[in-house]
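Design job #97: recover the sequence.
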């Protein structure tokens, strides 16, 4: 099934002002269920802008964006937030774990935000996911007492909490040493193969990109 479809996506900042600037000039991109894609391109080329649009954090100025066959332009802000919570998982370069929470509580966050999940169910799910990323023993540890690679594995578990169709990872290994980066990448790859979860990974790392199914490069707001 088609998880993601972009047709002629354009994005301008400061619309209607004297400094209006178009930064995405008609992006076409489709991803099928189970795809594992690297998004590359120089700094300032529009990757973050594109990721924010695909992640339903920002709306395009024009063009079609469909997630799981749903045309997102037809959705209001509340419906968009709901769709985001239920279908998209996020992993960032700086994991953004909540430092006052344990690893387990961090993984529970997306379920807490979604509301209505019983506490025992959220805890059981979080523990299962921490087990999957090899961090069972760390579940009650404060997230900030863990290494960078471990924290990023918690972030992967958190991204999977709502069983998303699509995981968006913005330079997930950018802040890690080579060995940890490799482990984090391989973990995402395994989860992709096991669960069929679709991954879109922004990376500057050529070696990791070559190990993806497909590389899409954005240059100056266009797919190169
Ligand atoms: P953002 O997504 O925050 O707009 P980038 O993803 O382009 O910015 O870059 C994030 C960081 O990675 C920046 O500090 C940038 O200097 C650095 N960076 C950009 N290109 C490369 C590269 N080819 N190799 C390593 N680091 C890079
Ligand atoms: P990348 O992630 O590839 O580094 P970005 O999407 O961050 O690229 O940036 C693409 C272009 O959009 C850059 O020229 C950047 O300066 C511009 N840009 C990003 N965010 C804004 C904003 N909020 N307002 C105006 N221009 C922006």
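Job complete. Output follows.
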């Amino acid at each position: 099934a088609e998880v993601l479809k972009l047709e002629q996506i354009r994005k301008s900042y400061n619309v209607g002002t004297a400094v209006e600037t178009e930064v995405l000039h008609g992006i076409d991109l489709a991803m099928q269920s189970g795809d594992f894609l690297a998004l590359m391109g120089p700094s300032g080329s529009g990757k973050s802008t594109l990721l924010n649009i695909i992640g339903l954090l920002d709306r395009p100025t024009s063009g079609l964006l469909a997630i799981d066959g749903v045309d997102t332009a037809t959705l209001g802000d509340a419906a968009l937030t709901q769709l985001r919570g239920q279908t998209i998982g996020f992993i960032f370069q700086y994991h953004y774990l909540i430092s006052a929470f344990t690893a387990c509580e961090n993984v529970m966050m997306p379920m807490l935000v979604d509301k209505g999940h019983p506490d025992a169910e959220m805890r059981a799910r979080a523990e299962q996911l921490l087990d999957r990323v090899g961090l069972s023993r760390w579940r009650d540890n404060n997230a900030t007492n863990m290494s960078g690679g471990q924290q990023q594995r918690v972030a992967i578990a958190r991204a999977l909490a709502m069983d998303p169709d699509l995981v968006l990872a913005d330079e997930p290994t950018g802040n890690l040493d080579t060995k940890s980066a490799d482990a984090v990448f391989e973990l995402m790859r395994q989860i992709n193969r096991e669960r069929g979860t679709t991954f879109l990974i922004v990376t500057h790392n050529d070696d990791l990109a070559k190990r993806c199914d497909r590389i899409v490069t954005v240059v100056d707001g266009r797919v190169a």
